[in-house]
Amino acid sequence: MSFPDRHTLVLGIETSCDETAAALVLGGNDIASSVVSSQIDLHAAFGGVVPEIASRAHLDLLNPVIARAIVEAGVDEARIDAVACTVGPGLIGALLVGVSAAKALALAWDVPFVGVNHLEAHLYAALLEDPSTELPIVVLLVSGGHTMLVEMTAPGEYRLLGQTIDDAAGEAFDKVARFLGLGYPGGPAIEAIARQGDPTAIAFPRAMRDAEGDGRLDFSFSGLKTAVMYYVRKHPDADTADLAASFQEAVVDVLVHKARLAARDVGARGIALGGGVAANGRLREAMLDACAADGVRGYVPSPAMCTDNAAMIAAAGWHRLRLDGPTPLDAGAIPNLKLA
Ligand code: KG4
Ligand code: ZN
């Protein structure tokens, strides 16, 4: 069998934003260990990720996190066949910590280094937990930095169908949560309080929901954030739980509607969720209902596989090695790397 094969053990490293993560994955889909150290507490006081603090924290945390991933997998480091690391998109200082460590380890262990696109890795997260996934699928990738619909026809083959023209869905959750005084990160805070609220209490706008032509599969969330602010200014006594539930419902409604359109357009056999916002219970429930109604399979990875982790980096690295071979050691980090 050619390299990599089902025995190939890849160390994945992720440091693109505020999670320091390392994982060992066998054969591209069998997770031997996955360790994530979140820096949320360090950034919470500032209401968002502070790049310089993130880079310094990655420096402190990365070596122990890698060591723990190796111990938890119960292997000797000599067993590792390749080192995969996120090279972009992300914060440049944060990315460089992971990329430098990954190259150093690859050099020291004399194994290939593989640079991984963080967005591509989020797509693999959907397949990691369900090896029986039938392609093509449409992946709705919704995170703090991205909101996109991607058609995946084979590992490594994907097409961007639509994306946000302004704020990402997670960014909208974070900004609205900050405005409502719910803290950081905003997504989990809004979801928690929304459980006590009425999602039909306020009819917030669904921007671009029924757009035709070029914008048909694109999204826009900055107007929704503004609509929440105007509403609160006009109704200072509005119930926060109702506001949160109605806001969340508006986001979920547009995301699910467009994912269904995309799946119908390309004849997808399923719809998968990926990215931090895919941890949202209301989105997961609405997406599974829609898939059942449309007769396609719904893939909702575990919340831990939706948010940033290194198992998805190792899996994507395995596929990249198979498709392109190793990445040269003089390749750099690319903060604004695109998916396609
Ligand atoms: O993928 P991710 O961990 O990091 C990025 O690559 O951006 O996504 C983080 C984003 C944040 O905006 C956070 O508020 C959002 O995902 N998020 C959620 C939930 N959990 C995390 N949004 C809605 N509901 C959640 N339960
Ligand atoms: Zn991410």
Give the oligomeric state: single chain
- What is the N-to-C succession of helices and strands? EEEHHEHEHEEEHHHHEHEHH
Helix content: 40-55%
The structural domain count equals 2
CATH domain class of the largest domain: Alpha Beta
Tell me the CATH topology of the largest domain.
Nucleotidyltransferase, domain 5
Please provide the count of β strands: 10
Which regions contain 5 or more consecutive residues with pLDDT less than 50? none
- The residue-averaged pLDDT reads 94
Q: Which outline best applies? A: globular
Largest sheet report: 5 strands, mixed
Strand content: 15-25%
Over all CA atoms, what is the radius of gyration?
A: 20 Å
Q: In short, what is this structure?
A:
It contains eleven helices and ten strands. The protein has helices spanning 40-44, 51-73, 92-109, 118-128, 169-179, 186-194, 222-234, 240-266, 281-294, 303-306, 311-324; strands at 9-14, 19-26, 30-38, 82-88, 113-117, 137-142, 147-154, 157-163, 270-274, 297-299.
SSE arrangement:
Layout: E1 9-14, E2 19-26, E3 30-38, H1 40-44, H2 51-73, E4 82-88, H3 92-109, E5 113-117, H4 118-128, E6 137-142, E7 147-154, E8 157-163, H5 169-179, H6 186-194, H7 222-234, H8 240-266, E9 270-274, H9 281-294, E10 297-299, H10 303-306, H11 311-324
Parallel strand pairs: 1-4, 4-5, 6-9, 9-10
Antiparallel strand pairs: 1-2, 2-3, 6-7, 7-8
Features:
Nucleotidyltransferase, domain 5; 5-stranded mixed beta sheet; globular; binds 5'-O-[(R)-(carboxyoxy)(hydroxy)phosphoryl]adenosine; 340 residues; binds zinc ion; alpha/beta
